[in-house]
Specification:
Oligomer: heterodimer
Bound molecules: zinc ion
Strand order of the largest sheet of chain A: 6-5-4-7-8
CATH architecture of one domain in chain A: Beta Barrel
Helix content of chain B: 25-40%
Largest sheet of chain B: 10 strands, mixed
CATH architecture of the largest domain in chain B: 3-Layer(aba) Sandwich
Structural class of chain B: alpha/beta
Number of strands of chain B: 15
Distance between the termini of chain A: 34 Å
Number of helices of chain B: 13
Number of strands of chain A: 8
Strand content of chain B: 15-25%
Radius of gyration of chain A: 16 Å
CATH topology of one domain in chain A: OB fold (Dihydrolipoamide Acetyltransferase, E2P)
Order of helices and strands of chain B: EEHHEHEHEHEEEEEHEHHHHEEEHHEH
CATH class of one domain in chain A: Mainly Beta
Shape of chain B: globular
Structural class of chain A: mainly beta
């Protein structure tokens, strides 16, 4: 899948560090860096960098083929509830589809999202793996 | 006069081993090696990075663990060095990607280093020197490789993926302190990879005696001479591990007993992780060594050179161990794959992309 160099770079804090928005008015945490709280509309928000650990809320195993995606199939796309409260979309790797279960503890790790092969940019960002003991 | 490195120590260490393993006998069978070759080299299986992993992603994980154990604010880290011979870009630093993704200070020295398998160790020496000189307070050094080997080459039995990282800083804050470090280097034609070539080559007669054994033995003897120490003064001895046999052999020749070498051995179960090899061995020892233990570490890189470090473990280490996955945890986390999956995972299958 072809990504945009500029969009990926602008969202680096979200891709690299799962940047969240914490609302000072209602106290809720939302995914991504935002100027307005999606829950109450307040502009009194601040960026929060989570620890990267959370729990698997939902997942889907996809065999959908897009050009450049073949070596990553099947993909497990997922929703993770971070320990800080926000629900974030992501990809679950380092686990076979039949080993995945709702409620599984996961942690965010830096991986390749895609790359403009053979000579283009490599896009890095966080994915999730089953939590490693530590 | 005290040595500058005595002012510096390891604050945190981190390891990463990918989940996939391919059996050495599977590789040997495919390419028609004489079956006893895996025993002769003492290689059982090797770790293989997933298709979305590379030296950057593995180095990131190891560095994250090292920073967690160090317990410092990453924005106080004044250098980030990545030693690798499998950098994802020929030109574009791996160090900047890892540093930004870990929120390490943007005001820092940062580069990718190349010296075959000892570039990560060179990074560790430089980070230590920067701390010792007072230029920076904390430094990060990473060794990370998705080691390449020409399919069918004897090196393919061992060339593997893994990473190790160290945060160094003032000795007062350290969990293990440096007593001394030396480096010995000569021009030796044992192993190389030319520009734009996918796989390395080796000068057959040179890999053992003139390269690995000569450089490690010279560096270790020099270190012991300078510090007035002998093999019996060390509790552990960790060497670069191109296979399982070489570290035992070089240790024996230097006068270290087998029980001091075995705790730092990782290669028979994960392969030669190149820049991570000796540094992962050290991480494994730090995962369990008692305070007061003295550790010898001797990384080696082809081309060729070897470092030798004397490191003494301090009391604070116990409270740091549980903060990140141990090497043993990662040795146990594994999924066996066949040669085809390994080939796909390491982008060895020719495709139109
Ligand atoms: Zn709100």
């Amino acid at each position: 899948m072809k990504l945009s160099i500029s969009i990926h770079w602008r969202r680096k804090e979200t891709h690299y560090r799962l940047a969240l928005t914490k609302c000072r008015a209602c106290g809720r945490v939302s995914f991504g860096e935002r100027k307005v709280c999606p829950y109450c509309g307040s502009k009194d928000v601040t960026t929060l960098i989570p620890s990267g650990t959370g729990t698997l809320l939902s997942y889907s195993v996809s065999y959908f083929r897009r050009e450049g995606d073949e070596e990553f199939l099947p993909r497990i796309t997922c929703l993770v509830k971070l320990d800080e409260g926000a629900i974030v979309p992501g990809e679950l790797v380092d686990v076979d589809p039949d080993e995945v279960y709702i409620g599984m503890k996961v942690e965010a790790v830096l991986r390749r999202y895609s790359s403009d092969d053979p000579y283009g940019l490599i896009y890095y960002g966080l994915k999730f793996i089953p939590f490693l003991k530590g | 006069m005290p040595r500058p490195e005595e002012r510096v120590g390891i604050l945190g260490w981190g390891a990463y081993i990918p989940r996939f393993r391919v059996k050495a006998e599977e590789i040997a069978r495919l390419w028609g090696f004489e079956p006893s070759v895996t025993k002769a080299l003492w290689i059982e299986e090797k770790a293989v990075a997933a298709p979305d992993e590379d030296a950057v992603t593995m180095g990131w994980y190891a560095a994250k663990s090292a920073i967690k154990r160090a317990g410092i604010d990453p924005s106080l880290i004044g250098c980030a060095f990545v030693g690798t011979e499998s950098k994802p870009y020929a030109v574009k630093p791996s160090a900047t990607i890892i540093a930004d993704a870990l929120n390490i200070s943007k005001v820092k020295l940062s580069t990718d280093m190349e010296f075959a398998c000892r570039a990560g160790s060179e990074g560790l020496r430089l980070a230590t020197s920067l701390v010792a000189s007072g230029t920076i307070k904390y430094g990060l050094a990473i060794g990370s490789d998705t080691a390449q080997a020409n399919p069918g080459d004897i090196l393919e039995l061992t060339a593997a993926s893994g990473a190790a990282a160290y945060v160094v800083g003032p000795s007062e804050e350290a969990v293990a302190s440096f007593e001394g470090m030396v480096t010995y280097i000569t021009d030796t034609p044992d192993f190389w990879r030319r520009d734009c070539s996918k796989y390395p080559m080796h000068g057959e007669g040179f890999t053992g005696e003139p390269a690995y054994f000569h450089h490690i033995m010279t560096a270790v003897k020099l270190l012991m001479e300078e510090l007035g120490l002998k093999p019996s003064d060390f509790d552990y001895a960790v060497f670069h591990q191109p296979n399982g046999k070489f570290p035992l052999k070089v240790g024996k020749r230097l006068g270290f007993t087998k029980d001091k070498i075995l705790p730092g051995i990782v290669t028979p179960w994960i392969g030669n992780t190149y820049n991570a090899s000796a540094l992962l061995g050290l991480a494994k020892v730090l995962d369990s060594a008692k305070p007061g233990s003295r550790i010898l570490v001797a990384p080696f890189g082809s081309g060729a050179g070897s470092d030798a470090y004397s490191i003494v473990v301090k009391d604070r280490i116990e409270e740091k161990r549980g903060l990140a996955p141990k090497v043993e945890d990662m040795l146990r986390r594994k999924k066996y794959i066949d040669y085809a999956t390994y080939a796909k995972s390491r982008h060895m299958i020719l495709r139109n992309v």
